[in-house]
Amino acid sequence: MIKLKFLTLIVVWLFSHHAIAAFDINARTAILQDYLSGEILYEKDADKSIYPASMTKIMTAIVAFELIKNGDLNMSDKFVISENAWRLSSAGYSSMFIMVGDEVSVENLLKGIIVASGNDACVALAEGIAGTEKEFALLMTAKAKEIGMVNTNFANSSGINNTENNSTVRDIMILSKYLIKNYPNEYKIFSEKEFTWDRTGGDPITQGNRNPLLYKNFGADGIKTGYLAVEKYSLASSVYRNGRRLIAVGSGFNTKKDRRIESAKLLTWGLTNFDLIEIAKYNEPIDSAEVWLGKNEFVRAYVKKDIYKTIPKARKKFLKVSLNYNGPIEAPIEKDQILGKLKITYKNELLDEYELLAFEDVKRLNIFSRLIRSINFLIWGDV
């Protein structure tokens, strides 16, 4: 028979983001995601094409991080600075202030890119890795397609003026999530508030991180600002509080002040209007199912992924999580054997379902024990 076991979980479920009271921010395009659940909490023209400006540098860093991870590049490796890279340190752009002929480590170039937003450092890193910035941009775009950034093309490593360097806030959100998930240690650089470059032929230069949210005491730890005259101000940002992370991306803020205030407003709205509920953790038992003719009376069950739901605080509904299986399940049972389904429903409407797997092996009783068990069942019923 089908066994149903309901976990005692009563939470709020958001069926429509419009169910939350009207909310808007002063940006041309924006998006907000709860990192663990993947739930999009807010979006405004999220697939509208934008010039990502210096948010481009997130991908520049990722390409380097991947090479380091694969052993093809080291933080201590040094690249010789070309005149092409140096020109960007003297043309009114954000700069690390490197000089022609300098030998600069990959670590310093990355900090110059991430913290100081140095366009000169971007070109130096790109040339050092791929030979030319154009070739490096091809690596960036290939990586973008690989991770699901379907509306993005990178034409340079810095994001400065190029009409072929385009993306969307949704794609930059995907990029940001990829960075945080796959390079958690390297991501810490994005939270550093200043970087000192001990430059050649002059006093050291200390520059502050351009992300204004790092200086607000509400858990922001990244990610990257951007500005182009045609696009105005942009920001990919993330906040981490009480085990919960939100990622926001906005573009087309009219002023620096708007960028700071509206981005903080969006993240704060997400934190205060929604809760994150943990339903299951990968490789951790959720509950147990009954076993027939096994050496154990129960087998622990789990799912092979983390399951989270993001819920609005204001409207309470019932969200039921049930273990559905034909049971008792006859032994022997092998680890990862499919036992049934974990189902998430709301008012008898199925929202999600996942394969329910055996967490362990359960051996079959020997023939004598099986016989005794069967006789007891015939005489006494389910014992």
SSE blueprint and pairings:
Layout: E1 2-7, E2 29-34, E3 40-44, H1 57-69, E4 78-80, H2 83-87, E5 103-105, H3 106-114, H4 119-130, H5 133-146, H6 169-182, H7 184-187, E6 194-197, E7 205-208, E8 220-228, E9 232-241, E10 244-253, H8 256-273, E11 274-280, E12 287-292, E13 298-302, E14 307-312, E15 320-326, E16 329-330, E17 338-346, E18 349-358, H9 367-380
Parallel strand pairs: 12-16
Antiparallel strand pairs: 1-15, 2-3, 2-10, 4-5, 6-7, 8-9, 9-10, 11-14, 12-13, 13-18, 15-17, 17-18
Helix pairs in contact: 3-4, 4-5
Overview of this protein structure:
- It contains nine helices and 18 strands.
- The chain is of the alpha+beta class.
- The chain has two domains: 2-13 and 280-380, Peptidoglycan synthesis regulatory factor (PBP3), Domain 2 (Sandwich); 27-253, Beta-lactamase (3-Layer(aba) Sandwich), CATH 3.40.710.
- The strands form five sheets. It has a seven-stranded mixed β-sheet with strand order 1-15-17-18-13-12-16, with no helix packed on it. Strands 3-2-10-9-8 form a five-stranded antiparallel β-sheet, with helices on both faces. Strands 4-5 form a two-stranded antiparallel ribbon.
- Helix 3 packs across helix 4 and helix 4 crosses helix 5 (133-146).
- Mean pLDDT is 89; it is low at 8-19.
